[in-house]
Amino acid sequence: MRKIDVSVLVPVYNVEKYLPECLDSLVGQTLEEIEIICINDGSTDGSLRIIKQYARKDKRVKLIDKANSGYGDSMNMGLAEAKGEYVGIVEPDDFVDLDAFEKMYKLAKTYEAEVVKVNFYEYKTEKKSDTHKSGLFLRKEVGKVIDPRECRHIFYQQPSIWSAIYKWKFLEQNQIRFLPSAGASYQDAGFNFKVFATARRVYYMDEAFLHYRCDNPDSSVKSEGKVYAVKEEYDEVERYLKERGLMKYYGDTLAIVRMGGYIWNMRRLTKKSALEFSEVVKKDYERYKRMGYLKADGLEADAEFIVNNLAVRDPDRFIKVRFWYELNDKVKMRLMRTYKKMIKKDERNNDEKV
Q1: What is the pLDDT of residues 300-342, one digit of tens each?
Q2: I need a labelling partner for 41 at 20 to 30 A (CA). Which of 49, 64, 265, 349 fits?
Q3: Tell me, what DSSP letter sits at residue 46?
Q4: 154, exposed or middle or buried, with CB in 10 Å at 0-12, 13-18, 19+?
Q5: Which residues of the chain does CATH 3.90.550.10 include?
Q6: Residue 166 — φ and ψ, nearest 5°?
Q7: In this structure, which topology does domain 4-222 adopt according to CATH?
Q8: Helix, strand, coil: what percent of the chain each, to 5?
Q9: DSSP state letters, 287-312
């Protein structure tokens, strides 16, 4: 039995402005049996100095100092060093309520959960307030153990891998690791899919603990670079599923999530990069059609409509209308119908269980 309840991984790269607030929220946790593993990924600012200061004051703060090799490699090093029964993740520009890990750990033990997933707050530095709490879960999913095979709704939500704790043994047994690609390349998407494709006991809690800083100008999600990083993540997910014979269960879900990720990617890129990436969209779209994963009914039909009409047939037009407020009413209605069908389908599944 592991003596540490929760290992918290903090991947650090040039975040001296926000790091003290993050670490204060972790060393002050009401759950005492924790370790805080800070992985310094070759920071060139004062981040390393700050971590060392905290480590001198609190023996629960551990330091992994390495040359810059990217987010995925940092997280994998942290997982390898973790001694906790469960593992949590906190980004260094975010912070958590002081009772966060105590509440999540108690739920994990009570329900023998492989994953405990909670909501989060979107936090804006300038206003120093939370704009709103995320709505990750369906009402009927909250407060009981869920099998993601039967409730696919979570796959279509923001990954938010930092609003959860994961049983270390579960991650090890299923060989769940991050793709060690360079930089911060949206590795949360692949990790999240692997977790929910293999988990069988997941507990959802409506309460929010983590304050997600959504106005950090240096956040990797705002970067124009890494045009193909999203494709690499979903290629890795597909490899993982095929290796375990899980494509027959999750092929359709992966197709929808991948296409959604591709649409998101095209929206953030410059016109030149988006047009370049549209060739990737077209190839994977046509490949999934041949494999039978984008079907002609239900949710798959709407996903196909969005991708085919907005990104495959006329990428130049899609780029011109890439932002929601510029989309015409017909496309808006199709997008909304997609998510409404998805929610109704999961609600029906939950009703059948009750």
Answers
A1: 555 566 666 656 777 776 666 554 444 556 555 665 566 566 5
A2: 265
A3: S
A4: buried
A5: 4-222
A6: -125, 135
A7: Spore Coat Polysaccharide Biosynthesis Protein SpsA; Chain A (3.90.550)
A8: 50, 20, 30
A9: HHHHHT-S-SSHHHHHHHHHHIIIII
The span from the CA of 260 to the CA of 302, in Å, is 11
Which pLDDT score, from 0 to 100, does residue 275 have? 86
Residue carrying structure tokens 């002050």: 28
Contact 215, 125 (CB under 8 A): yes
E strand segments, the chain: 4-12, 34-41, 61-66, 84-89, 95-96, 115-124, 129-133, 145-146, 164-167, 202-213
Q: Token pair of 121, please?
A: 């707050």
Q: Work out the burial of residue 42: count CB atoms within 10 Å of its CB; fewer than 13 is exposed, 13-18 middle, 19 or more buried.
A: middle
Query: What's this model's pTM, rounded to 2 decimal places?
Result: 0.86
